[in-house]
Design brief:
The complex is a heterodimer. By secondary structure, chain A is an all-beta fold. Helix content of chain A is 0%, strand content 48%. In chain A, the strands form two sheets. In chain A, strands 2, 4, 5, 6, 9, 10 and 11 form a seven-stranded mixed sheet that branches. The radius of gyration of chain B is 13 Å and the shape is globular. Classes of the chains: A mainly beta, B mainly beta. The A-B interface holds A 37, 44-47, 50, 59-62, 95, 103-107, 109-112 and B 1, 34, 36, 38, 43-46, 49-50, 55, 87, 89, 91, 94-101.
Chain lengths: 119, 107
C-alpha cells in the first residue's frame, strides 16, 4: 500500500525558514517524480514544486521560485521541502504527492501538514 | 501561465441526478486534464486523468470528457458520498495549475 507521511510543519515567523519532510513507503520511491501541493485555509489547491526521479530536475511556480527548494533522498525514500523567507501567504496545508510513471500528476497524496506563518 | 476556470462554483443536486461540472483552460492543453475529489478534512483523490481515463478503484458513475480547452466531469447518478469539492488540474505545461473548484452538495 502506497503511503506518504508528511512532517515538520508548525508555526513560524515571517522571514524565517522551515523544512518539511515526507516519508514514502509501499512503492519504489526512486522510480517516481514527486511533488508538493499546498492549500491555504478554505482555499483551492496550488502546486508548489516537482522533482525528477534522480533529483536533477526541479520545477516551481513563480510564487515560490527562489524561496523554496524541493529535494529527495532515494536511499531513505524521503522527499523534502526547504522553505525560506516565509510569508504570511505561505500559510497552508502542504501535501506530499506522487506523479505516476506515465506523467499523470498526483495519483497518491499524503494526509498533509499545516504550516502557519505568523508573528 | 494557463488559467483554469471551473463552473459552477457551487452546485446542489438530488441523489440520483446526473451532474455535470465544467473546466475551461485559457489555452489548448490537449488531453492533459485531471479531476480530483476532495472531501471535507481529507486529502484530494485522483478521479480522472488524461481527460477521460478513470483512475483504478473509482466508481464507473464518474466519467470525463473533452480536449483542447473545454472539459467536463460527469457523475451519472449522484450518491450521498459524492458530496465534496472537485478540482481540475492541467498538466500540459509548467506551471501546473488547478481550477478553483466546484463544491457539490446534496439537495
Amino acid at each position: 500500500e502506497v503511503q506518504l507521511v508528511e512532517s515538520g510543519g508548525g508555526l513560524v515567523q515571517p522571514g524565517r525558514s522551515l523544512k518539511l519532510s515526507c516519508a514514502a513507503s509501499g512503492f519504489t520511491f526512486s522510480n517516481y517524480y514527486m511533488a508538493w501541493v499546498r492549500q491555504a485555509p478554505k482555499k483551492g489547491l496550488e502546486w508548489v514544486a516537482t522533482i525528477s526521479t534522480s533529483g536533477s530536475r526541479t520545477y516551481y511556480p513563480d510564487s515560490v521560485k527562489g524561496r523554496f527548494t524541493i529535494s529527495r533522498d532515494n536511499a531513505k525514500s524521503s522527499l523534502y521541502l526547504q522553505m525560506n523567507s516565509l510569508k504570511s501567504e505561505d500559510t497552508a496545508t502542504y501535501y506530499c504527492a506522487r506523479h505516476d510513471n506515465s506523467g499523470v500528476p498526483f495519483d497518491y497524496w499524503g494526509q498533509g501538514v499545516m504550516v502557519t506563518v505568523s508573528s | 501561465d494557463i488559467q483554469m476556470t471551473q463552473s459552477p462554483s457551487f452546485l446542489s443536486a438530488s441523489v440520483g441526478d446526473r451532474v455535470t461540472l465544467s473546466c475551461k483552460a485559457s489555452q489548448n492543453i490537449n488531453k492533459y486534464l485531471a479531476w480530483y475529489q476532495q472531501k471535507l478534512g481529507e486529502a484530494p483523490k485522483l478521479l480522472i486523468y488524461n481527460a477521460n481515463s478513470l483512475q483504478t478503484g473509482i466508481p464507473s458513475r464518474f466519467s470525463g470528457s473533452g480536449s483542447g480547452t473545454d472539459f467536463t466531469l460527469t457523475i451519472s447518478s449522484l450518491q450521498p458520498e459524492d458530496v465534496a469539492t472537485y478540482f481540475c488540474l492541467q498538466h500540459n505545461s509548467w506551471p501546473l495549475t488547478f481550477g478553483s473548484g466546484t463544491k457539490l452538495e446534496i439537495k
